[in-house]
Amino acid sequence: MEISENQLLRFTTAGSVDDGKSTLIGRLLFDSKAIFEDQLEAVETTSKRKGHEGVDLALFTDGLKDEREQGITIDVAYRYFTTPKRKFIIADTPGHIQYTRNMVTGASTANAALILIDARHGVIEQTKRHAFIASLLQIPHIVVCINKMDLVDFSEEIYNDIISQFEEFSSKLYVKDIRFLPISALLGDNVVNRSENMDWYQGAPLLHTLENIHISSDINKIDARFPVQTVLRPQSDGFIDYRGYAGRVASGIFRPNDEVAVMPSGFTSKIKSIDTFDGEIDEAFAPMSVSITLEDDIDVSRGDMIVKVNNKPEAEQEFSAMICWLNNEASKPRAKYTIMHTSNEQTAMIKDVLYKIDINTYNRNEEDKGLNMNDIARVTIRTTRRLMIDEYRDNRNTGSFVLVDDVTNETVAAGMIL
Amino acid sequence: MSKYYLNYLDELESEAIYILREVWAQFENPVILFSGGKDSILVTHLAKKAFYPSKIPFPLMHVDTGHNFPETIQFRDDLIEKFDAQLIVGSVQESIDKGRVAEEKGKNATRNSLQITTLLDAIESNKVDCAIGGGRRDEEKARAKERFFSHRDDFGQWDPKNQRPELWNILNGKHFEGEHFRAFPISNWTEMDVWNYIKRESIQIPSLYFAHDRKVVWRNDSWIPVSEYLKLEEGEEIVTKKIRFRTLGDITITGGMESDADTLEKIALEVSAMKKTERGNRTDDKRSETSMEDRKRQGYF
C-alpha cells in the first residue's frame, strides 16, 4: 500500500501518575524514530542535570516550565508519529487530580485508548475509572497495557491474574474491543519490538497492534447527517446564483439526487451537487468537508442539519444525557447555559440532576445534586428550541454537546446524549 | 466494496477546512497571519479550498519586521494578487519609530520579540477578533499544548493553565470585547505532512525553500544569509554555498542548510531523513529552554 493511502489513528493514554505513561509515549516515539537528535540532546542534558541514570524518556512529553519543574503533566498535549503503515496522533492526558476532565477531553476524538496498569499493583481504583470513562465516551478500541513487567520477573501468572481482575469488573461496562499486552515501557519490551523476556506471550507488540486495529468501521455510515456550518454565496462571475451549504459530514453517506430534508424546518429537496475545490464528487462520507447544493431554493442557514428524508434525527427540546463537569466553578441550580451541539447553539438549562456516578464504585448518588469539577452525572437538559439529536452510542458527532457559561464564556460541561 | 475512509492527508485537509469555516462562522473580523513561510502559505491554500467558489473571505495580515528576505515580500505580493485577497501590514519599523519598542543590541540582536507588540497593535487597531496562524503542535513543546481555538485575554496573553477544553469537534470561540482568539487549523500536521501535501497539491512556495547558491556566514551552527543587517564578527568569512532554508523567519535569524534538494520530491525525501527538528536552526528558539512558551505567553502566535 502506498504511504499516501495511510489512515490516521487517534489514541489517548490513561494511567495514574507513576504508571509510566510518559515513559511509554517516550518509548513509542523513541523506538519508532520519531525523536530528533536535538530533542534527544536536550532531554539527555536535563536527565543528567536531574541526576537520572540514562535518558528519562518521560521528559519528551512534559513541555511546559511548570511541568518540568514539578515533574507532572498539566494539560492535554498532542504528539505525532508516523510509521510506514499509519499516522498517529496521541492525546497525552495527565493522570493526576484533574484526571476525569482531561481524560474526557483526550478521549472525545480517540479511536483507541491505552490503559496502563502497573504489574506490581494490578487493577486499582484508578484503572476502573479509566475503563469507565473509556466506556462512557465509547472509545471503540481499548488496549490494556500491563506495564513494568520487568519488576515482576516477567511473570505470565501475574499477567493472567491481572487480565482476569480486569475482565471481572469490565463485564459491567460497554466496551466493544478490548486487548491486553504485557510490556515494559522502560526497557522497551513489546512496545515497538517484541520482548525477548516474555516468550510465553504470542501476541504482537503494541505498535503493531496500533498499526492494525481496524478503524474504518468506527464511523457511523448509516445515518446521514450534515450540519451546516456556513452558506457560500460567491456572487461572482460564473457563480451568480450559487448557494452552497458548507459543512463536514458528521455521519452516513450523501450522494447527488438523494432526497433530503433540512431540519428543523423539515423542508425537503434533492441534492443537486456535492462540491469541493477539486471538483464535484459522487459521494461524501464522514469526515469529509464539502459543500452541498440543493435543487430547490429553500431557507438553510448555520445550525440547520441536512439529513435523508427517510432517516431523521430526533427533534427534541428535552432529553437526558450524561455530563462531565469540567469547570472549577460548580453548576448553579436552574442556571442557563449556551448549549453548543454540532453547528447549532441554543440556550439550555440543566432541568434536573437525576444522579451522580461515583466512578470508583459505579454507585449512583441521588441525593447530591451539585455538580463540581470532574463530576459525572445523569441529567435532564431543556433547551429553548428543538435540537436535532441522536444517541451518543450511535453517533459521537450528533450525540455530543458542550455547555458554555455565558458569564465567563468558558466551556463548563461535556455532554453525551442518552 | 468501495472504501469509506480518508487517507491521512485528506483527513487533515478536511479537519483544517472545518476549522477555517468555524472561524468564519463564529468571528466577526478574522485574519490569516501571513509570514510568507510554507505553513502560512498552506493555511491560505486551505482557506481557498474551504470557501470555494467564494473568495477567501478574510484579509491576510503580515507582521513586517523590516528584516525580510526580498523573495518573501515578492512572493507575498504575487499571492495576494493571485487570490485577489486583501493585505494588512503591521510594521515593526513603525513600532520602533513610534517608540513602542526598542531595537535589541548586540551580535545576536533580532526583531523577533519586537514582533509581538506590532502584532498585538495590529490586532487591536484592525479590531481583529481571531488571528489564524500556521502553528503546528509538532514544532515545539509549548506548541504541543495549543488548542485549535486558543483564547487570548485583553492583553493578548496565552495562559496554558487556563485553556478551554476542546471536545469532539466543538470549538468554543466565545469571547468578550477586547479579547481575541488565535486559530490553528493545521495543529495536527507535522512537517512531513506539510511537505507531502505541498507536493501532492503542487502548491507554490518561495524559492528560498529550494537549494541554490547563496552568500552565507557560519554562525551559531548554521549558515546565516548575508544581508544588509548582518554585521560580520571577527573571524567570520563570507562564502558561497548551495543552501536551502527549512523554515523561514527573519533574514537575520534564519539559518540555512547545505543541500542539493532543488525540487519538491527531493525536499520531501531530504526532510524524511532529517535528524534534527525544523526549529533547530532558528536562533530565537535557542535562547532558553522555554523561549517559545515565554513568547507565547506574551502574545506571540
TrEMBL record, chain A:
UniProt enzyme class: transferase
Family matches, as NCBIfam families: CysN, small_GTP
Highest taxon of the lineage: Bacteria
Family matches, as Pfam families: GTP-eEF1A_C, GTP_EFTU
Full protein name: sulfate adenylyltransferase
Classification via InterPro entries: CysN_GTP-bd (IPR041757), CysN_II (IPR044138), CysN_NoDQ_III (IPR044139), G_TR_CS (IPR031157), GTP-eEF1A_C (IPR054696), P-loop_NTPase (IPR027417), Small_GTP-bd (IPR005225), SO4_adenylTrfase_lsu (IPR011779)
GO biological process, alphabetically ordered: sulfur compound metabolic process
Domain annotation Tr-type G: ranges: 6-230
Molecular function, one GO term: sulfate adenylyltransferase (ATP) activity
Assigned EC number: 2.7.7.4
This protein's UniProt keywords: ATP-binding, GTP-binding, Nucleotide-binding, Nucleotidyltransferase, Transferase
TrEMBL record, chain B:
Stated name of the protein: Sulfate adenylyltransferase subunit 2
UniProt-recorded Gene Ontology molecular function terms: ATP binding; sulfate adenylyltransferase (ATP) activity
A Pfam short name: PAPS_reduct
EC number: 2.7.7.4
TM segment ranges: none
Domain Phosphoadenosine phosphosulphate reductase: 29-254
InterPro entries, per the entry: PAPS_reduct_dom, Rossmann-like_a/b/a_fold, SO4_adenylTrfase_ssu, Sulfate_adenylyltrnsfr_sub2
Family to which the UniProt record says this protein belongs: Belongs to the PAPS reductase family. CysD subfamily.
UniProt signal peptide: none
Keyword DNA repair in annotation: no
GO biological processes: sulfate assimilation
Organism listed in the record: Marixanthomonas ophiurae
Region (Disordered): 275-301
Keywords recorded for this protein, A-Z: ATP-binding, Nucleotide-binding, Nucleotidyltransferase, Transferase
